[in-house]
Structure formats: structure tokens, C-alpha cells
Amino acid sequence: MSATYELPAEVVTESKLRYVDLPRRGGRAALITFDNGHDHTKPNTFGAGGLASLELAINEVAAQPDLVALAITGKPHIFAVGADLTGIGSVQTRDQALAIAQRGHAVFSLLGDLEIPTFAFINGAVMGGGLEVALHCDYRTVSSGAAALSFPECFLGLIPGWGGAYLLPRLIGVANATKVIIENPLNMNKQLKPSDALELGLADVLFEPADFVAQSLLWAADVVSGQLSVSRRSLDDEATWAAVVSAARSAVAERLHGAAPAPMRALDLIEAARTSDRTTAYAAEDNAIADLVMSEELRAGLYSFDLVQRRAKKPIGRPDPKLARAINKVGLIGAGLMAAQLALLFVRRFEVPVVINDLDADRVAVGVAGIHAEIAKLLKKKRISQDKANRLRALVSGSVDKSAFADCDLVLEAVFEELSIKRRVFAEVAAIVSDTCILATNTSSLSVTAMSEGMPAPERFVGLHFFNPVAVMPLLEIARADHTDEVTLATAFEIGKKLKKSCVLVKDAPAFVVNRLLTRLMAQVTAAADAGTTPEVADRALDDLGLPMSPFDLLALVGPAVAHHVSGTLAEAFPDRFHTSPGLAHLVEAGKSSVWMWVDGQKVVDPQVAVAFGTGTTPWTATEVHDRAVEALAEEIQLMLDEGVVAAVQDIDLCLILGAGWPFHLGGISPYLDRSGVSERINGRRFLPIGVASVPR
Amino acid sequence: MAGYGRSVVLVDALRTPFGRSGPTGRYAQTRADDLVVAVLRELLRRNPQLPPEQIDEVAIAATTQIGDQGLTIGRSAGILAGLPRTVPGYSVDRMCAGAMTAVTNVAAGIGIGAYDVALAGGVEHMGRHPMGEGVDPNPRFLAERLVDPDALQMGKTAENLHDRFPHLTRARADAYAAASQAKTASAYDQGRIQRQLVSVGIRDAGGAWTLSDVDEPPRPGTTLAALGELKTPFRPFGRVTAGNSAGLNDGATGAVLVAEDVALSLGLTPRLRLVSYAFAGVEPEIMGVGPIPATEKALRKAGLSIDDIGRFEINEAFAVQVLAFLDHFGLADDDERVNPLGGAIAVGHPLAASGIRLMSYLADEFAVHPEVRYGLTTMCIGLGMGGTVIWENPNHDGGTSK
């Protein structure tokens, strides 16, 4: 294998070594601070330079026989958040990856080899390799102010391979370790709180942040002097170990269907950790890291991480934020469920008056009452204080008279998806509002330009497409219509930012990005079912992608009526590629909310649905469904790029990750389409160059 | 004996180690309010019998009340320390006697029954807040000769004191200073200072965490010869030097004051019992004599004479100012009842923090010497004042030794 591999562009986290006298005449101790010289917004990470600095510090400690302990802590708010990902993404060969894994093991193992007791004072956020440093220490204190603790590796497509997979289950038990290493990362990368870490046995003691380092040193002094002894759980027995690992394997298989290799590799390591010795275990971790770093799924994961962390924060095409107008009052047209969700979101984030409007006084009253009920729920869950609840409640009002919009800075419509209705309400509103009011539509598929055409101020029209559930889904598609001006667009982006949404600028094209692609995908699945493929086969054909839910589960979530309506709009716009499914139409007519129904705990096809789906005479095989679906995606994405729906394919991937929850291991979708050869087969070329979201060759 | 309504006792007093001020000082990277927080939290930790919600007041002194010493530090530090929100707080300023005034303020409140339990403290980060920062003296002070131009520069007032009392020579001042260093070193050797300190985790100039657990200012081994070499920065051929003055320092102090009956019911041990206190004004240009009239006044209120006092904790802003006090009361320069653990010349004087440092030293002496019945803490104050608090030893065993 190659010698050590220099990671590029590393912001080196130094291990700054100092000496302190432990309290109560406890003797002289070494205290290392991880510090990369930046504030907490640029957390400590480990690349080649960081590992070298830590090695140097530990060796200096090892050379001093008079020391009684070594403690490690971090700069304010941050302990360390793991390996330098920029470096990992640029690894070219398996040998380089192997070298990185081995190097981390070699340096961290020095901690375990010291003869004096070692302590990690986890003063702030700790993840991945940072947590592995802490696990190599004999004892751990944690600050109740630490923002987050986790092993996010499986979320990205890696495994905790600097000792974590071996040490964690041995320390906190196999069930807890499986939760931390597998379950949490696959659950939207859920983080542990400091109190969780204490409860799991990951930390030995919790101290408040105000005097965390001083109190940790005092605690360490008592441990060193023998005044305090720390008890540890014994290793779980063989049967427990096997049962937990086996259950976790089933859960992972059910969830991913083999789409991403990392969680299973992590489970292999956890399984072996009970009886393995450290050398063997670390060698296995090295190999797992080397394989995974050279896996397409990890490269797609790093690409996705970068999209979410960076591209989402600096949207392409955003005008100068200084152009944006202030929003001091918001009007919502419609009093239905969507309007109520939007009203709640706006009133919580903007804390300005929000007026909902409907022609029907009863609907308005029900709408306002619904929002008030949601505010009451937030209060009950202690998400907001009583004062805040009072404030929010007082800000929400309803009116049947659109003159209540006269002093609004933003009016957003969420009425029925029918162009003529939307045009009619906008004509009324435009006559009432000031000449600076932004007029926005939450349409999911209609043309914003068509809506604004002929209106008094078409330049103040913009599409703000939210995703259901509005409070949870992080994406906002901002649709620029033909006449939308820069001020309106800048305001739209500021609105998105204040709502804590990630904004993507899209062209005013039918169904924008997410709905267009999901509908195109769904069209293939329903076409298969219409042709005679059984719903079971059609719905499971895409399992190997590891999507968050199957197409028919998604259909149930969206609602067959909405899906049918959107497909109608798209079929009108692009009759060569989209069609309305007779089976889906039947479903809507029959008032069904899903293809599936539950009978004795079993998911089965609703017999009334089976009349429409799966009865054709030319069924597709599962492979055909799969291939036609992904090919349709590749074709549609290329057409969208040609149309200029978004600035680049990265925006499409970002939309799918944030708007549809599509997984990191697919990189949204274009890295998957590239690596599986679909892009070249359909479009004659890849979406992304080799090495961007894939293993360099 | 005098009394202020209910008997008031000090049950604990402690401080951060003091640091040398300036860009290379130990606390250069540490906020003043964080030093106060360290003190308040340690007071609560050392007195677990004291329910925090029973604290009626938090009075914290600082001379310069801006930046990290501003924002009504008695309240803001209370919140930062994690005290219940129901516990109020405020800021105090009487320059060097800030913490002493915080103690007498809350003690008076306890005496009249307004409080049962109160925290008092003081802080001065002279590195972040050099003396005179942001002051805007009224031009009338000088135009109308209300004060001598020297009155605002403490070193010059000390030189003026040498002028007033020519027999208090530089040699006597230097000898006193050397003794202060020696007594401090001896107290450290006996572990008597360390137990009055809370260790503070701090970041050094390199960004690394370290532990502040001993005072930075002391210069053990200081010799008379070395002191004699030092320059006189306030006046050519003057007498006041960096060696026979307190330095510029950073640090915080705090104390728990409780009505004696409440202390007993909570199981808190009284360490000092308040007898009387007094503040007095003097000519601002010789502010160093302030402790003399303040002490006379406090003695009068207590119905005691100077002969009743068995221990003196006098702040050593300048050696000459201590000598003036001793001279006035007929005490020898090296009287062993005076500052037995050393004083500010060695350990430092972070202005508004020092008053409670004196009380902490006295409490330690009282514990070690139950035969002593009365002691006093006294200090000079800028713009011509002095403050004195007389205390009784709750451990007094009935012996008559002073």
C-alpha cells in the first residue's frame, strides 16, 4: 500500500498541550485542547495534519513519567466532529483510503496504550472521529451544553472506522450501540443530547457548561486518587448480542433493500466486536472504510452532504438580499388545510399579522379555529410559552372581505388548483393591495405566468411552492414567472430564509421540479399496473433504490386526487411523455385514499382497486418497471435541464433530497443514474463528470 | 455592643485566583462576568445546605461598569451562574471598596429584616478595564479647585501621603512590602490561601484550556535590595514604586451573608459576625488616610477601642497608606496582628473585588485563632474615602488574647 496520504486543503486542528496541577494535590496532568484556530462555525476535524499534531502531543505526554493523567477537550462549543470530509472526497485509490483508516487507528490507539488514566472532557459537539477519540480514553465527562453527539457515518455512507464500531458496543452494550451507529443515522441523522449520552453510558458524568473544564478536572482528580470509582456494564451475553444484531439486520434490509452498503458493514463489525481482539477488529474496520470510501454510495453521500450544507445555503440565482421588501403583514387566500398550515408557519416565523380569507364565513371561522388549535398544541408540547401562544393567536385573524388585505406586504394563495379560480382571486386582490405587495401562489403545477398575465402588476407575481407537511419539509421551490422582477424574487428568497426553508430557484414550468419528476416516476408505475402488472410487483420494483417510501405509499400520502390532478396538468403540457392513468382515475372516482388496505395487520391490495390495477393483459416484469421508471427520470431530467427549469442538475438533486426525502446514497438521483449507466443509455452522456459524485477512475 | 437589628454573619467568602492585568496576563482571554460566575457557583457548591431560591439579593461590585462588567452584573452574573430567575441582583460601585460596600449593603438589608440570605461580591478585570476607562470628570473639579489635580491618580495620592508624613520613608515602605511578600509565601506554604480559592478553567493566549488555581501576582523571595532598585513612576525621586504598591490585577470575590438565626436553622456555619461598619471621607489627594477616620467611626459605633481588635486586615493599595494607619493607632510596622497572611502588595488588588478578599483572610485567621475575639477589615478608597468593617469571631473560645 502507499505511504501516508496528504489530505488537501486541511484546516489543521491542533492538539494544544498544556499542563495543570490536578485539584486536591492530585498531581500533574496533561491537558490537550483541540483547536483549529477558528470559532465554532468551523468545527475541529481530523485530517493528516490534525492526526500528526495529536500524535505529537500524546508522544510528548508518554515521555513524561511524572504525569498522573491526560485529559482532552475542545475549543469552546466544539470537541471534534470527525474526519476531514473534504479530504475523504478526494481520495483516489483504495490504498489511500486504507492508509487514512490505519493512520487514525494508529494515533488513537496511542491513547489506549498510555499507562496513565485518560479522560475526554466533551465540552461541545462531538461526532464520528471526535467521538472515537473520546472512546479511546478511559473516562468521559460531558457538558450539558454540548450541542450534539453522534456517529453520522452511516448517514453519509461510511462506518465509525477509527475504533467506534469496536469500542462502542463493548462500552454501552450492543443494543445501545446499534441505535447510535445504525438507527439514528438512518433516522434523518438524529443526534444524541448530552443527557442521552449519560443515560446510554457513553459519558460517565454530566457537568454544566459554566465551569465545565474546572469541574471535569476536579472529577478527574477524584478518579485518579481513587476517591471515585466508575462502574462499567459487563459485556452483553452472546445470545443478546446475536439477537440484537439479527433484528438490526432485518430492519436495515426492510428499509434499504440493499441500496446502501454501510449499515450492513457496520453491523458486521458490531457483530464481531464481542469476541474480537482490538487488532483484528481494527483491521476489519480498516477494510470496511477502504471499501466504503471507494463505494459509489459514499461518494454520492458526500456530494449530497455538500449540496445540503453549502448549495442549499447559497441558492443559485438569488438576487441581492438587500433588494428584498419587508414583510409586516401576510394575507392568505383560502381557509383549507394547506392555507391553515401556511398561516401557522408564517405566523410562527414572521410573528406578524396573518389574515386568512375565504368567501365562506364558516370556512374562515373553522380555519382560524384550526390554527388556534395548532398553536394550543405547540403550547401543550411546551414548544412555545403561554405568552408566545397569546401573541401568535392574536396575530391570526380571518375575513370574508378581501379589503383586509389592503395593508398586506405579501398575499399568498392556496385555493383550488384551477387557473380560472386563481386568476379571479388575484384580480380581486390586485385591485385592493398596495403597489408594493408581493402576490404569490402555492400552485404545485399551474403556470405562474398564466396566472399573472393581464394583471395590473405581473412583476410582483411569484410562485412559492411548499411541500406537505409544510412545517416539516425543508424545501421551497421559488418559481420565477416571465414578468417577476428582481425585488419580488429577492423578497421571495428572504421569505424562504425567514421560514427556515432551503430555496431553489426554478423556472415557471409545469409542476416545477419535484412534482414533475415524482409524477413521471409514478406514471411509469401506474402504467405498469394499468398494463396488468400486479400492484405488489409494480410497487416493489424500485425497492433497490432505498427510497423513503414506495410509489404507492407516496400516492397514499399525497392523495390520489391530487396526484391525478397534477398528472392531468402534465399530460396536457407534455402529452408525449405523461398520461393520466385509467386505474388512478378509477381510484379517485371510487374515493379511495390508497391502493393498499390493512387486513389483519397485513398490507393487501384493496379489492376495489384490484378491479382497475393488475387486470390488464400485458404485465411488465419487475425489471421492466424498474428500468422504465429510472429511464423516464433520466429523460425527464435532461429535458428539464435543456428547458432551463433549474440552473444545474445539482439543483434537481437538492430538490429531490429536501423535497422528496430521496436518500444520500443516490445523491438525490443523478449520481445513481450516472453510475448505473442509465444517463448514458438514454441521453448519451452523464449528468455529472466522473469524480464529482462518484469514485474517480 | 452595637447591633443592627438582627445579627448578621458571613458564612463563606472565596475568590478566583488573582491575575496580573494586561495582554499577557492570565485572564486576558477571560471575561470579567465569567470570573464572577465561577465564584457564585463555588459559593453554592460549598454550601449545599443553602437553597438557592432562598437567596434574597445578589450585590456585585465593579468600578468600571461597562462591557463585561456592565449590564447590572449582579443580575446578569446571577443568571449566567444558574441562580433561580426569582433571585434578584444589582451592581455596586465605591471604587476599591466595592465588594466591601456590597457586603455592608446586604448586611444592612439583613439587619433590618429585608433579606434573610444575600450574596455579595466584587470583580475588576483591570486588563479589560484600565483604571479611569471612560471617565469624564466634571471640569469644575479642577476649575473650582474642588480637588487637587493629583486626586484622580492614586499613585500621586500615595506620594502626597509620604509628603504629609515625612517619617514614613521609602525604606519603611519597602520593608513593609517585602514582609507582605514573605507572609504571602508562608501562607501559601501552609495551604491557607489555596482553600480560599475557586479554580477557574481558562483559555490561554494560544487558545488552549488551562487551570487558574493559584494567584499570579505574588513574587516570593522579593528582597529589600531588589525593591530599592525600582523606579518611582509617579514622581521623579519619589517613594512609591511598583514594589511597594499593589499591582494592576484581575479577579473576582464573593461572600454569603446570612441572618444568624437563619444560618443556624439552615445549618450554615458563621465565620464572621458583623459588629459595625463605617465609611468616612477625607481629602481626595491623600485618600490613603481614609481607613483612619473610618475605623475610628466604626469603633465608636461598636463601643470598642483599637485595643479590642485582635486582627487587622488592611488593604495594601500602597505600603505608605498602611504605615499611616499603623502609625496613627500606635501599631508597629511589623505588628503580627496586621495582615498575617500578607496582603495586596503581594497578592494583588483588583479594585472592587478586594474588600471580600480581606474578609476571607480574616475568616481564615478567626478559624485558626479562636482566642481572638474581634477583627477588622479596612481599606482606602479613591476620591478620598475609607471603609471599615468590624467583625466578631463566632469561634471565639472566651480567651482574651488579641
Question: What proportion strand of chain B?
Answer: 15-25%
* Share in helix of chain B: 25-40%
**What assembly state would you assign to the polypeptide chains in this entry?**
heterodimer
- Indicate the CATH topology of the largest domain in chain A: 2-enoyl-CoA Hydratase, Chain A, domain 1
The CATH architecture term of the largest domain in chain A is: Alpha-Beta Complex
- The CATH superfamily of the domain at 8-127 and 247-391 in chain B bears the name Thiolase/Chalcone synthase
Which segments of chain B are poorly predicted (pLDDT under 50) over 5 or more consecutive residues? none
Average pLDDT number of chain A: 94
Q: Provide the CATH top-level class of the largest domain in chain A.
A: Alpha Beta
- Find the count of extended strands of chain A (DSSP E, 2+ residues): 19
Number of helices of chain B: 12
Shape of chain B: globular
* Low-confidence runs of chain A: none
Shape of chain A: globular
The ordered H/E elements of chain B are: EEHEHEHEHHHEEHEHEHEHHHEE
Number of domains of chain A: 3
Largest sheet of chain B: 10 strands, mixed
The class by helix and strand makeup of chain B works out as alpha+beta
Topology:
The complex is a heterodimer of chains A (697) and B (402).
Chain A: E1 14-22, E2 27-35, H1 48-62, E3 69-74, E4 78-80, H2 85-89, H3 94-113, E5 118-122, E6 125-127, H4 128-136, E7 139-143, E8 149-150, H5 153-156, H6 164-172, H7 174-186, H8 194-200, E9 205-207, H9 212-225, H10 238-256, H11 262-273, H12 278-293, H13 296-309, E10 330-333, H14 337-350, E11 354-357, H15 361-380, H16 386-395, E12 396-399, E13 410-413, H17 419-432, E14 438-441, H18 448-452, E15 461-466, E16 475-480, H19 486-498, E17 502-507, H20 514-531, H21 535-540, H22 551-558, H23 560-573, H24 582-589, E18 596-599, E19 602-605, H25 607-610, H26 622-643, H27 649-659, H28 670-675, H29 678-683
Parallel strand pairs in A: 2-3, 3-5, 4-6, 5-7, 6-8, 7-9, 10-11, 10-13, 11-12, 13-14, 14-15, 16-17
Antiparallel strand pairs in A: 1-2, 15-16, 18-19
Chain B: E1 8-15, E2 19-20, H1 32-46, E3 57-61, H2 73-81, E4 90-92, H3 98-111, E5 117-125, H4 140-143, H5 154-164, H6 170-189, E6 200-203, E7 209-212, H7 224-228, E8 249-259, H8 260-266, E9 272-281, H9 291-302, E10 309-314, H10 319-328, H11 344-347, H12 354-368, E11 374-381, E12 385-392
Parallel strand pairs in B: 3-4, 3-5, 10-11
Antiparallel strand pairs in B: 1-8, 1-9, 2-8, 5-8, 6-7, 9-12, 11-12
Helix pairs in contact in B: 1-2
